[in-house]
Amino acid sequence: MDLSVGLNVGCDWLTRQPQHHEALCRRGLTLDAGGYLLDFTPTGTVFEQAVVSVGIPVVERVWQAGGVPARILTGPEVDEMRTALGSMGWGVGDEWGGAGGYSALFRLSLPVIDGLRAAVLRYRLGCPAHRPDLCWQQVTPEMVPCGWHDEGMEKLWLPPEARESDVIVDG
Predict the structure, then answer these.
(1) What are the residue boundaries of the structural domains of the chain, listed by start?
(2) In 3D, which of 113, 46, 41, 52 has the Cα closest to residue 84?
């Protein structure tokens, strides 16, 4: 998947993709696109904001001799990303990071779709039947984890345009 397709698919998922009424979303969606990792996060500094992070893959974040990173984002790369988001109609509000670092973050001017915000909220509230911080973990061998977490994560609808090899779900 190339960068512009990845940006468009992820932004559409954040702002337009309906979600199952029992879906859970922990952190968002990551796509591997055009040599970048694109993180689409439905929880910016204000809950309704959509944040897009474009970063350099971890395997390329190696340090060369003398403490110089092997690859960082350049000014033209960040400009290209901002321009691409704007030309596709996503609109960029605030921007953080960028040139000289490993990632650039862009706050979209469009809000996160209600169903995705609800999925994040359900995740944050935790399992309604058990302790939220332990429900889905098998803390001791005797414990049988309940299916709340896994079932909810499976109900999160991902972008239909994304191939399985492009999607990294943080669940």
Answers:
(1) 3-160
(2) 52
